[in-house]
Amino acid sequence: MIPRYSRPEMVALWSAETRFHIWFEIEAHALDAMAAIGMVPASAPQAVWAWWATKPAIDVAAIDAIEAVTKHDVIAFLTWVADHVGEEARFLHQGMTSSDVLDTALAVQLARASDILLADLDALLAALKRRAFEHKFTPTIGRSHGIHAEPVTFGLKLAQAHAEFARCRSRLEAARADIATCAISGAVGTFANIPPSVEAHVAAKLGLTPEPISTQVIPRDRHAMFFATLGVIAGSVERLATEIRHLQRTEVLEAEEYFAPGQKGSSAMPHKRNPVLTENLTGLARLVRGMVTPALENVALWHERDISHSSVERMIGPDATITLDFALVRLTGVIDKLLVYPERMTANMNRMGGLIHSQRVLLALTQAGVSREDSYAIVQRNAMKVWQSDGALQLRDLLGADAEVTAHLGPDALDALFTLDHHMRQVDVIFDRVFGPHG
Amino acid sequence: MIPRYSRPEMVALWSAETRFHIWFEIEAHALDAMAAIGMVPASAPQAVWAWWATKPAIDVAAIDAIEAVTKHDVIAFLTWVADHVGEEARFLHQGMTSSDVLDTALAVQLARASDILLADLDALLAALKRRAFEHKFTPTIGRSHGIHAEPVTFGLKLAQAHAEFARCRSRLEAARADIATCAISGAVGTFANIPPSVEAHVAAKLGLTPEPISTQVIPRDRHAMFFATLGVIAGSVERLATEIRHLQRTEVLEAEEYFAPGQKGSSAMPHKRNPVLTENLTGLARLVRGMVTPALENVALWHERDISHSSVERMIGPDATITLDFALVRLTGVIDKLLVYPERMTANMNRMGGLIHSQRVLLALTQAGVSREDSYAIVQRNAMKVWQSDGALQLRDLLGADAEVTAHLGPDALDALFTLDHHMRQVDVIFDRVFGPHG
Amino acid sequence: MIPRYSRPEMVALWSAETRFHIWFEIEAHALDAMAAIGMVPASAPQAVWAWWATKPAIDVAAIDAIEAVTKHDVIAFLTWVADHVGEEARFLHQGMTSSDVLDTALAVQLARASDILLADLDALLAALKRRAFEHKFTPTIGRSHGIHAEPVTFGLKLAQAHAEFARCRSRLEAARADIATCAISGAVGTFANIPPSVEAHVAAKLGLTPEPISTQVIPRDRHAMFFATLGVIAGSVERLATEIRHLQRTEVLEAEEYFAPGQKGSSAMPHKRNPVLTENLTGLARLVRGMVTPALENVALWHERDISHSSVERMIGPDATITLDFALVRLTGVIDKLLVYPERMTANMNRMGGLIHSQRVLLALTQAGVSREDSYAIVQRNAMKVWQSDGALQLRDLLGADAEVTAHLGPDALDALFTLDHHMRQVDVIFDRVFGPHG
Amino acid sequence: MIPRYSRPEMVALWSAETRFHIWFEIEAHALDAMAAIGMVPASAPQAVWAWWATKPAIDVAAIDAIEAVTKHDVIAFLTWVADHVGEEARFLHQGMTSSDVLDTALAVQLARASDILLADLDALLAALKRRAFEHKFTPTIGRSHGIHAEPVTFGLKLAQAHAEFARCRSRLEAARADIATCAISGAVGTFANIPPSVEAHVAAKLGLTPEPISTQVIPRDRHAMFFATLGVIAGSVERLATEIRHLQRTEVLEAEEYFAPGQKGSSAMPHKRNPVLTENLTGLARLVRGMVTPALENVALWHERDISHSSVERMIGPDATITLDFALVRLTGVIDKLLVYPERMTANMNRMGGLIHSQRVLLALTQAGVSREDSYAIVQRNAMKVWQSDGALQLRDLLGADAEVTAHLGPDALDALFTLDHHMRQVDVIFDRVFGPHG
């Protein structure tokens, strides 16, 4: 976790205080359920909750000090609780195993982290939608291979990103459901010393579903799917960030990240306005993606469990969610304040001498009866001259002077092939598909 | 693709013939839709389908030879079709771009590959269920950290795997839906020269959904999610394979892969019976996982598209699906024919002098009024003696001779703590959760 | 392995014939060494080599058929050899284990693959050097963050790539040394039934070094290092490919991949000239990188060995070397025939109204006694006006009209800050560092 | 960075204080070199060093506060320095770019981190050597596929690990040399405003080599190689950790991690002694490996540089080195204090009824004139009976009663095939190869 790439709410979720808080809730709710079936005296949960009602500060240092002796974190925590609650605390954790607490707590943290990330995605989607409608009909050149292809609109670019992040949102919801399970099943998951009703109660209290079958631990394919999903979202972050980095290139300059007053782009070159936020997002995407494989390697625990997954999750649990949270919020800010230059978009689009309309000519010739191969050759022949002139020649002019063209297409027919609105005919349809018929 | 790790059905799906077959269907269905709206004469699809009805052999070599000149695969294919269909073929592909064909074809292939993998998973689930019920109450030791913990049943191990692969099946269904989209939207996705109705028709014919917004290409976050899901399934394959490898260790030997007559385990050591199938599955899992990151890196294409994803998909499309298909079928065979040794399971379970019952003693002492800390110390003190005796001493005997124990627990109470059925009380409940109340 | 991304020499290295050829050599040389110390009769190697001298065709299908029964590849091969050599063949492989053959053969293949890759790198280095000197003083804009920074030369860009690939070459040499070891040490590496002298003899004959300590297998950290090194080289391939993709963008167009006559860039848009080779290289780099992690996961074999590494290596051994070989040769072709447009480089460089000289002004002001902060503010103030004018204003003019500037820098001093050769003063020095003082 | 998996020395290396300390050194040494050639007045470095000689506390919070405004870390640092040094500070950083400082500082940090890791490896190698010689002739069973193969010694296992980590050490030395370069070459690496002599001076002062050609940044293939090397070392850590985890399994129990008094293995099961350190090392290895791919993805920066690598390095720079440092030290402790149980090793070795000697019988029969195929069948036939008896039958007895055996091998000959020292004959030779002839 790098402070400069972190937001407080997500950081707090991974603090020791929050973790112990969740541990307490799990243990105390479990105690309630045990009391309900007579496993423990009713006085036990009463004592525990009564202490909790005093809102005791969680003394992380004290718990750490106990752990330094016991070398076991859950026992250390329970010992500290017992020091405060007294005698009745001995009923806590009966029939449970550490993983019941640890894994259920991790599920709570990952579910809450998901909620933050879902809210981040909602904000990003809102920004994308707003800017997409703003530029729904702002023409700009579509590029394949980095080469001018045919016109699109800037709104379409953002609508594509909206559709992509809406998919990411659905995937994250599925991933959240995958990890939001509760296991209170004892040493090897047999409920030998603690009945399933305890698990059901704790699950209900914490908004989780009971894990159908656990083996001391919640199976790690769930977590693998969760982190893999974060990796996919990171890929989409990189895609949109890369688009903006391209648009801000000196030669393109169709859009720019907002540049704050007082900001310095370069210690050496004062004129520089660099797409540093989206470059940063590209790097953050690499980090989140890099955590997918460790999570995948965590699945194959030995027998009912080994603890190799633990150190991995101590790092990637916070790091992946904190980094992606930061990235999504940063990306939302970039989109929200993005400086867009429609004039430059038009200027760039027109710099190729009308080559962007070449396909329409090709189709028109074909429909006029010329074979596909001949049509291709005719258009390419003229297109190459325009290309080599670097914008000095216009395709419309060359075609008008090419007898093999004019034999099939008159001046008006040719003019009609060089209009921009032709390319925007279906924008409404596409926006309806992405944003729904009522936007 | 390694022949020895491949199955014919999945291999055939990725052959050149199959690919060209799908390409033809896409182009011909699109032509139908174009004729329906008057874009092309009705004679065009008639001629094309009439030729197709002759069941022409697809001449891959001829198409490759054309591509060697044009350096463009779709144009090569269309040229070859035109050579056979004649004049009317010039209407094919009008207003379309290569990616309309390539990406939609890939969607068809990945959807069909998913269907094969889903069937594989069904077979695996059936085998796991059958063996799980067979060994529903076969006692065996549960192990955490590779160390004996408490008893479970062998059926529970398999039920866990069943639950895990059932989750994998759901994830794969979601991944299939994610990639099964059709894009026929032209050069930059604007439908400038081909209306959305063509896309809708082709999608319906091929069992796909229309891509809401494409940019020449279908967005690669879909494919990233697909391959990430295969990676998670591979992780689950590795987990179950690792379990079997452990069980077959010489010192454990609770289960063995089926050993065919005539099979040689080692060129040097004729007695060897090695878990080579599950070791192989471990390696295959690494391979499938290794394809996740390239798929994630494919998401951030430049602008409306670049073609960097193509070489990646040419390799991982076949390799990941073929390898996982092979792995799932191999794993099903391993489970189906697995040699299980219940006597050895019992012998192993009993070798620790009753230590596996230590937690129950701990709980009983606590409930009898001893503090948790004291109970832990008492049990651990005796447990350590048993541990160090390497099975020569029995925990039950030592406890019976420990005054701090007998002060709270009489002989009958102690005996009751050393029974096996205690650990099996909830097996029915768990099986109901995994397999449903009617199995 | 994808045929279209493969070259024959490297493919042949991984054929079944080559593999069996190497196996034979290992077994036969080992037999020589055994005969030399009297382990086997001298007649044995004589018979074996005599048969080999007849240059027998290796019947892969026959060997495969035997393997289908024995399920063991080395035994199948030896059985086939025995079928031809007769009685004396029974001395082959005595005291050896399959891995002695398999691992040593893999070492031979990886060493030969390295030799091909080293030759590829030599060719690439030669092309880079030639083009670097050709454009040693071709001015072009240096870009950080995709934004114009200060002038460099196109030769410097290529010299950087040369230095990078020269490092890659050194790393590959080290990686080659790491995997070029020979192990003939028996079932668990103890030489129990075969003395070290056999290993020494085979190693010498095959150009390998003896593995100091093996455990049936050659340790896989060696292979991990090898494939990790290929992954680093792939990263460098991607870097240079990305540079060219950027240079070929429509708005930049400072260089282009060579475009063959008859080549079609797009089925829909005849004018397109796309950087498809370097985009392809970007994808190939992802593939090679994706093989690093499986190789790293192969290191932790169980005890003296398990066979999980085998399936991984069957795939990534050929795939990584074949793909990287193809990529290096393709990249060499791209560099060799790259179309370079110096006029466009100059035009692009000058489009920013002299902003690229801003740092020199900043330094001059500082040296003239203005504080760094004030200098920065003065330059940035003028630079921003130029930036916003999109090239209409010239920085030199604005500075000449800024009293805070002219108070410190006269017209001649200002003019001197806007010269290009200033940036080329050290090109000779840098070239000497990269290519040596004599080029 | 997870505090529980961190050691202070390595953590301190990555602190803000250390970083600013190194930045100062770079800037001040560069100033010396500038003064030496008259670029700046001699009074400038004098003032700067004079202030430094007062050992000023580095006020990280103050620098951070400046950065919050300027959004540029190096400018923030220089501003803070200027606030203390006064007027003369304006000569600092002249002609330099931020990356000159950042990249050179990172090189210093990675070089120092390497030194710590090299010392860690030395300690690990020493522990491995000590324990290897201690158990040079402690017999234990060698296992392939987890199945008993033939005897080895426990010392050989440790010697193998020693050889592997010695290779890791060499690789790390090479990786250190790869990243220990200094670049002070200005905005785009042309030395336009700062001559190479400055770089040479700073490099010499900091123990680095000058980067032959930089492009504002030091090329990231160097860092990729560095982190890839750490990933390989992590793989070797996992291998040795996995070995120990296997040895500590309940059924094997040939070695155990040291178990501290007061340590609790399980909150539920007081008898548990778990290999938690080596399981933890397995997880830490996954983490370090997961950082390789982001480093590989960092290579392909755009043009002369983009800043996407920066966030990646801010995380993996500390995390990879801190985690690996911790892992190596932990592993050294495990080896150093490992509890080894030779009696159990012998007991396990003997539990298979002599099957571990089967290969020697096979060889003896072959040498006595039986065909390899027949020999194999004879041995396997008897071996299978022993195998199925689970140790009740002895291979020696069965062979002695098999007429096809006794026809070729008499009782004495058979007895001689079942001796242990046969397998230890070459241990001295192997130790010489690993540790040198004088140990």
TrEMBL record, chains A, B, C, D:
One of its GO terms (biological process) is 'de novo' AMP biosynthetic process. Pfam families: ADSL_C, Lyase_1. Pathway: Purine metabolism; AMP biosynthesis via de novo pathway; AMP from IMP: step 2/2; Purine metabolism; IMP biosynthesis via de novo pathway; 5-amino-1-(5-phospho-D-ribosyl)imidazole-4-carboxamide from 5-amino-1-(5-phospho-D-ribosyl)imidazole-4-carboxylate: step 2/2. One of its GO terms (molecular function) is N6-(1,2-dicarboxyethyl)AMP AMP-lyase (fumarate-forming) activity. Gene3D superfamilies: Fumarase/aspartase (C-terminal domain) (1.10.40.30), Fumarase/aspartase (Central domain) (1.20.200.10), Fumarase/aspartase (N-terminal domain) (1.10.275.10). Residues 353-435 form the Adenylosuccinate lyase C-terminal domain. Coiled coil: none annotated. InterPro entries: AdenyloSucc_lyase_C (IPR019468), Fumarase/histidase_N (IPR024083), Fumarate_lyase_CS (IPR020557), Fumarate_lyase_fam (IPR000362), Fumarate_lyase_N (IPR022761), L-Aspartase-like (IPR008948), Pur_lyase (IPR004769). Belongs to the lyase 1 family. Adenylosuccinate lyase subfamily. This is Adenylosuccinate lyase.
